[in-house]
Amino acid sequence: MSGYDRPLTPGRIGAVKDEDIDFSDIPELDESFWQRAKLVEPDLTEQVTMRVRRSVLAYFKAPGKGYQTRINRVLESYVRAQRERR
């Protein structure tokens, strides 16, 4: 298949036929792969209501969007550190 000289748009991707896709650089998944494979369950988020000090919230909001993600990352690192101490 040719036409890699310009980016594939969603429309162009949808027009590619399965038989025209080159899989030669992707190794086959043999039995040894599946024997070593581990199921990884997603760690989904859950909406909660919690009370935090205004100063703490202001600190995490100061850099801009994403303050909830920043708070979650801090909490995740705390949990990891506590698990490692056990």
Could you describe the 3D structure shown?
- The chain has 86 residues and is mainly alpha-helical.
- The chain has one domain (10-85).
- The chain has helices spanning 10-15, 31-36, 54-61, 67-85.
- The longest helix has 19 residues, at 67-85.
- 0% of the residues are buried.
Tag the structure with descriptive keywords.
single chain, 86 residues, mainly alpha
Domain tally: 1
Please give the alpha-carbon distance between the first and last residues: 55 Å
User: What is the percentage of strand-forming residues?
Assistant: under 5%
Number of helices: 4
The count of DSSP E runs of length 2 or more, i.e. the number of strands, is 0
Question: What is the general shape?
Answer: flat
Give the H and E element order. Answer: HHHH
Structural class: mainly alpha
Give the radius of gyration.
23 Å
Mean pLDDT: 90
Level of helix content?
40-55%
Biggest sheet layout:
none
Low-confidence stretches: none
Q: How would you summarize this macromolecular structure in one to three sentences?
A:
The protein is mainly alpha-helical and 86 residues long. The chain contains four helices and no strands.
Secondary structure layout plus pairing:
Layout: H1 10-15, H2 31-36, H3 54-61, H4 67-85
